[in-house]
Amino acid sequence: MKRSTLLPALLPVFRSALAATALCATAFAAQASVLILGAPAQAGGLADVQSKIAATGVVSGVVDVFNVATGTPTLAMLTAYDAVLVYNESATVPFASALQLGNVLADYVDQGGGVVEAGLSHATAAFKGMQGRFITGNYDVFNTSNNQNSCGGLGQVIRSDSPLMHDIASFNGGMSALCYRLTAKAGAEVVAQWSNGQALAGYRMDHNGVVVGLNIFPTSSDASPGGWNPASDGALLMANSLAFAAGELPEPGSLALLGIAALAAGVAGRRRTRAVQAAA
């Protein structure tokens, strides 16, 4: 029987696929740790966000908190984590230093760290939003705004294949349902909208680290009157965003095997780099 010449030709492809699968599994098995950088308006707000995100099981490592109303983390502190969620919720409880925080977050992204920005940090400096190089260097996803709407809940999902929206069946903004009239910056993409048409979630990947923008206030109604309804998928939206920013979920369109392998290799490399920097 004549031996087929097709199989030998495909063997390198099979080997590459198997190697990619192994690499992907190795990198994605590594636990991602995240830090919540919150300036909560309500007592118990940080604990509420922490417990809600941890309970989803999406983030495989630790979920720590740091109150950025009373201090600003150092770059050395941030590099111990794969991604951070940063937000404030009231102009009466601002960031301890919006300028220093914005600068250190930009440095963190430069080193491959992932950032999820939410809440009042999307506002202008006059209304206690984020400042520093994170804004001036266009690391943020949305153009800043001071205009709030009562936005309702989950509206159009523009990118149903986005990891940010994985298993998101509903989102109810609660009695207040506060959001901002935001537009995506150049280089960013909106993946979902509120029911009133305002941007709900988006991301950008044109820096060394992934940056996600969530146009929500992270504390639920369990700790903040008028907050998002915990019976909906607000916690999962934040957890998905952190996992994506940390590199645990592939970006849309990267589900081809070699695409995932490349992403996994990058994540593993960034984690090793940050581990060395943190130990130095």
Mind explaining what this structure looks like?
This protein has a single domain (32-279), classed as Class I glutamine amidotransferase (GATase) domain (Rossmann fold). Helix 2 (45-56) links the parallel strand 1 and strand 2 (63-67). Mean pLDDT is 84; it is low at 1-30, 255-265 and 275-280. Helix 1 (6-29) packs parallel to helix 7 and helix 2 (45-56) crosses helix 6 (234-245). It is an alpha/beta fold and 280 residues long. Helices cover 33% and strands 18% of the residues. Strands 2-1-3-4-10-9-8-6 form an eight-stranded mixed β-sheet, with helices on both faces. A two-stranded antiparallel sheet has the order 5-7. The termini are far apart.
Could you name the key traits of this structure?
disordered C terminus; 8-stranded mixed beta sheet; two-stranded antiparallel ribbon; disordered N terminus; 280 residues; globular; alpha/beta
Set down the secondary structure blueprint:
Layout: H1 6-29, E1 34-39, H2 45-56, E2 63-67, H3 75-78, E3 83-88, H4 98-110, E4 114-119, H5 133-136, E5 148-150, E6 154-157, E7 178-180, E8 188-194, E9 199-204, E10 211-214, H6 234-245, H7 257-279
Parallel strand pairs: 1-2, 1-3, 3-4, 4-10
Antiparallel strand pairs: 5-7, 6-8, 8-9, 9-10
